[in-house]
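Researcher: Here's a chain I'd like modeled. Treat it as a single chain, no partners, no ligands.
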Amino acid sequence: MNLDQLRNLELDINRGGDWPLAARIVLLVLTLSMVVGAGWYLDTADQIAILDSERGKEQQLRQEFINKQRVVANIDAYRAQIKELEQMLSDMLKQLPTKTEMPNLLEDISNQGRANGLVFSQFRPLDEVSRGFYAAKPIQIKAQASYHQFGAFIGSVAALPRIVTLENVTMNGATVRDFNRESAEPLTIEATLQTYRYTEDDNATAAGSKR
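Model: Modeled as a single isolated chain. Structure tokens:
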């Protein structure tokens, strides 16, 4: 029986046993194809999706392993860098005076001003401003001096072993940027000096006093 004969053949579904062999083979193939297709759709497709997901996780884990392997391979270098940073932090903290050292620092700043020719009409330490592990201590100053005397004062303050910064400088109402630096005329200088204090010692002292 060829394909054309199969197409023209009228088959009774209730008498499948009497069908020609070719028709039964075609029906069997169609049935198996439907079963396989349904099985793939219901099970295999989900399994493939899970497999793709697991492959993606595998790639992610592989990359994490490579990154961690690099860290382990360079652990000694990282430890050396951490030690260096800790030493730098320690050196910087040494430039912050403790609470007991702050009065001496204020006196040093005042002495540097007088040594460089400044005549203070105001030298006013303000309240501290807490900034975490350190506190800022602003000092408002007003003084009479020439431009070069004031410059020498700033240089000597910068050379102190403690950190002191300069902010908001005005000279006879003009900012330092706008002022004629060659003038030898005495100036009225107003500025804010900012020094900083390490506050962790406060906690250590408080803890020690409770014992």
